[in-house]
Amino acid sequence: MALAILLLLAIVTGSLAGLLLVFSVDLPQIHDLERYRPSTMTDLYDIKGRVIGSFALERRVVVNYDDFAPVLRQAVISIEDKNFDSHWGINVFRIAGALWHDLRTHGRAQGASTLTMQLARNLFLSADRTAARKAQEAYLAIQIERAFTKQQIFTLYGNQIYLGSGMYGFEAASEYYFSKHAKDLTLTEAALLAGMPKGPVAYSPILNPEKALRRRNLVLSEMEGDGAITHVQAEQARNAPLGLHVNQPEMSVAPWFQEEVRRELEKRFGTEQVHEAGLRVETTLDIDLQKAANRALSDGLAAYERRHGWKGKLENVLAEGTTIDDYKHPDWATAWRPGDYVHAVVTHVFPLAIRARVGSEEIALLPEDWAWTGQRSADSLVKPGDVIYVHLGDKLEGPARRATLEQDSGTQGAVLAIDNTTGDVLAMVGGRDYALSQFNRATQAERQTGSSFKPYVYTTAIEDGAKPDDIIVDAPVSFGSYAPHNYENDFKGAMTLVNAFAESRNVPAVKLAARVGIRKVVDMAHRFGVTSNIPAYLPIALGAAEITLEEQVASYSVFPNDGIRVKPRLIRKVSNADGITLWQDAPAVDDIISQQTARSMMTLFRAVTAHGTGAAVAQMKHPLGGKTGTTSDYTDAWFLGFSPSVTCGVWVGFDSRESLGEKETGARAALPIWVDVMKVAIAGKDDERFLGDEEENPTELAGAHPPSAAPHPASPALAAPRTGVALKPVAQSSPLLANPR
User: Fold this and answer.
1) pLDDT tens figures, 4-19
2) Which of 305, 402, 569, 666 is deepest in the core (most CB within 10 A)?
């Protein structure tokens, strides 16, 4: 009998050896594994080294052997490979049994894979469950065991295995399912994760919690049978709930910025390296300023909505054939917190209360939370199934979170802030809600600029010899069939250029453009870096041109930089996983205008914020300058301005280009947002000064000549309307261009 058993074992061993020889052809060499680096996440960092986001095809956090809790290691070994510490890569008896089963049943290959074989399959082979692939697994497993220690093999396995929900490796899975590190897992948590490699979807605690519970308890029973835990420990663990604490992914603090970074990285390094090579990307973002920009835009748009009253016109999920319980809004895909603006679905309506939910969290609204609508009763505002827009508070009403009712009528906005010296993009907001629209209105939307285009006109005039104190007459004038009008539909007569600019008078701007030639103005805009096609028509002087916010902000930064343009940049340095620098981006600098022209223009910009259309900025008591912009019919509202260190621009409007409403100027709709952002940008910089302030009187620079000051004698070139000026071509008067400010 013993001889027969030995003979059988010899036959099995010889057969396996022969099969291994056959199936080892074209397999990867094991020394490749010595250089193997698992696909890891590319992390993005802000200017202070804080993580702002990541890119990955596989969400994986690589850790060392000691970073796996001993109870986790034991749980994996008990359920997956009891003889892991003693075998040499394969378990002959289990493989023989599996092959015998396959031959007898003509079915698919059975299990019997050791941890080392699973590692070999995950690293090098396909997922086909065939005898041939099993033989290849075995051959590779033997080679792996010869080259690596058991600890190294378990570490490779623990970092490579897929555990559902896009998570690879026990560390990433532990952080996702339990919001803790793998070294801190409890017995029940470790058993749950250890049971998942066999079927990451089938045993997912999120998708199939009952099956996951049964699988976890099986792992506990195996551990008890192996003597790894006591019967009492096993019973207590089997009676415990799953205990999930899912770490819901955070919405990136700067999703539009992150997407711009991804595009630039993929253009330079390729998609595969960006998403799999574990790069370290040092970006230009300042998280603190970005958060301020996010909050400022949300608050500013909420204030705009309240000014225009409650419109209703809400989406109703019941009317669309969806139940309230089944409804999921895109906002809910990421975590939210008090202070956020999110969408909610109404669940119950009472006369003096509204109940709704955001994801699984219940929220409550009381009469004071919708008082701005002018409605007393809740049932006159909403009904069950309505999708409402709310501002989450930090107080609770029983188990529900308090929130205020807001409105999302479709208004959009964008914010962009850059460092004047380096061109670093410090903050970027491309819209109201990234979950609903990934279109980046800061970099992709070309919008009419209104009077925010006038700096190109005045710069051209100053370069042509005009001075801030020169006199120009604000009086009726026509150029062929085109007769410009001022925003207020009045005329102020003789005034200095600085005051005409500060008050954003249209007639003086058109006169200047006619004097220097509109083609020169267009050329000047292109010199500043504007890439859009600008037709050489005189109304262009009042902002009929369509330009992106990014280009406008970059252009405005030239003025506090003494005429130097620094190209906006998103990335400072890229390093690989070993810390070796792959690419370092230096600021790209160009001379655009002379220092003298830039400083003359600074006099104009600072007059805007001292006593002009941007006078609300004066309350900040800091060296600042800027310019408002409003297009006809109030379709676009702008404010662009700067401190000595930061230039920031804000745009507000509808994607559909409908009117924002009567009197929604740049000063009203965009400027308050800019002020809130810049308060953070200038914090702690009380001593900063504009270039030239130490050489000239800051008071003169800031105030120039207020409207009440006596003007200088009129310049013959500017005092009266120019007649007979060659204007080719001349645009016809258009209601869309009649009164921008």
Assistant:
1) 666 666 666 666 565 5
2) 666
- pLDDT (average), residues 130-154: 78
**Which residue from 55, 52, 59 is spatially nearest to 38, judged by alpha carbons?**
59
Locate tokens 């993580």: which residue?
A: 51
The rounded mean pLDDT for the chain is 87
The arithmetic mean of pLDDT across residues 288-316, rounded, is 96
**Inter-residue contact 722 to 733 (CB < 8 Å):** no
CA distance 741 to 721: 21
CB atoms within 10 A of CB 405: 22
Mean pLDDT of all residues in 430-435: 94
Beta strands in 437-569 (DSSP E): 447-448, 471-474, 493-496, 546-547, 564-566
| Pairing between β-strand 493-496 and β-strand 636-642 as defined by DSSP bridges | unpaired
What average pLDDT does this structure show over 453-472? 97
Local confidence band at 413 (pLDDT 50, 70, 90 cut-offs): very high
The question of whether 126 is a catalytic residue gets the answer: no
Tell me, what's the pLDDT at 1? 65
Higher pLDDT, 62 or 549: 549
Mean pLDDT in residue range 263-278:
87
| CA–CA separation, 384 and 338 (whole Å) | 24
User: What DSSP state is assigned to residue 636?
Assistant: E
Q: Which of 46-55, 97-106, 344-353, 369-378 has the lowest mean pLDDT?
A: 97-106
| Beta-bridge partners for 566 | 589
In which residue are the tokens 């994986």 written?
60
CA 655-657-658 angle, to 5 degrees, is 115
**What's the distance, CA 441 to chain centroid?**
13
Phi, psi of 723 (to 5 degrees): -110, 155
Catalytic residue among 165, 174, 451, 643: 451
Which DSSP symbol is given to 381?
T
Chain centre distance of CA 17: 55
Cβ distance 606 to 702 under 8 Å?
Answer: yes
With H, G, I as helix, E, B as strand and everything else as coil, classify residue 264: helix
Q: In whole angstroms, what is the distance from residue 468 CA to residue 495 CA?
A: 11
SS3 track for 136-203: HHHHHHHHHHHHCCHHHHHHHHHHHCECCCCEECHHHHHHHHHCCCHHHCCHHHHHHHHCCCCCCCCC
Q: What is the pTM of this model?
A: 0.81
Tens of pLDDT, residues 512-524: 999 999 999 999 9
CA distance 141 to 653: 62
Q: Which two tokens mark 230?
A: 């006591």
Nearest by Cα to 513 from 456, 457, 597: 457
DSSP state of 615: G
User: What is the rounded CA–CA span in Å between residue 186 and residue 577?
Assistant: 31
In contact, 174 and 185? CB cutoff 8 Å? yes
- Tokens for 649, please give them: 């621009």
CA dist 133 and 419 (Å) reads: 57
The verdict on whether 451 is a catalytic residue reads yes
Q: Choose, from 78, 80, 259, 260, the residue flagged as catalytic.
A: 80
